Amino acid sequence: MKINSPAEDKIIVDLSKNDMLELDITYEDMDYSTIETRRVIWTVLDEAGKILGRELDPSRRMIIEATPKNEGGCILSFTILDGKKKPFPQKHLLKKQSENIICDFENLDNLFRAAQEIKRFGSDAQSSLFESDGTYRLILNCTSEILKGILSEFCKVKSCGKLACDHTKEHWRLLASETAIENLLNS
Fold first, then answer.
1. pTM, to two decimals
2. Which of 94, 134, 157, 182 could anchor a disulfide with 32, C-beta 3.0 to 4.6 Å?
């Protein structure tokens, strides 16, 4: 567990896959309405308070953002909104980051070059490939801003939600499902 505080009202906690196993939670299971998630948040805040040398009261108003990591961990960002305690019951907001990006390629050459860069980057994200009217669309289960920057050299990149993914699945021709990057590099 790596903890840092870039500002008095901001705490960032980087949880590895092993940290998540020790806390007995996955990114997919995180939901602040469950006692398991609240237990994890309280445990993480307690540990952060010890390391940072200050009391971090979980009853304070805050926004909690969760971002999955490719290797199975998670990054939790805490933004403390003010110093006031909220009356019980607590209503924290746990925001999960979008998990998918859409990459639209004008040609196969750029698609293959991007696949090589994705592999070189070390991403093992799930990927599906679609085609429509000579345009290739790759849907990656990934939120890495660094990878988005790399891919933008080869294609148009945008974050997408479930609706955009479902639209693609319905209106585009599927070429490879879930392991498109591996299929492209092994063909």
1. 0.48
2. 94
Give yes or no for a contact between 77 and 65, defined as CB atoms under 8 angstroms apart.
Answer: yes
Q: What is the tens place of the pLDDT at every residue in 68-86? A: 877 778 888 888 876 554 4
Residue ranges, the chain, pLDDT below 50: 85-92
CB neighbour class for 145 (10 Å; exposed up to 12, middle 13-18, buried from 19): exposed
Residue 131's DSSP bridge partners are 136, 173
Residue 47 structure tokens: 């540990």
Residue-level pLDDT at 131:
92
Contact of 54 with 31, CB cutoff 8 Å: no
Residues 128-153 have pLDDT tens digits of: 899 999 999 998 887 667 777 778 88
Domain boundaries, the chain: 2-96, 100-185
Q: Which residue has the tokens 């021709």?
A: 173
Q: What is the helix, strand, coil percentage profile of the chain, to 5?
A: 35, 35, 30
Instruction: Pull the structure tokens for residue 48.
Output: 């952060």
Q: What is the CATH number of domain 100-185?
A: 3.30.70.1950
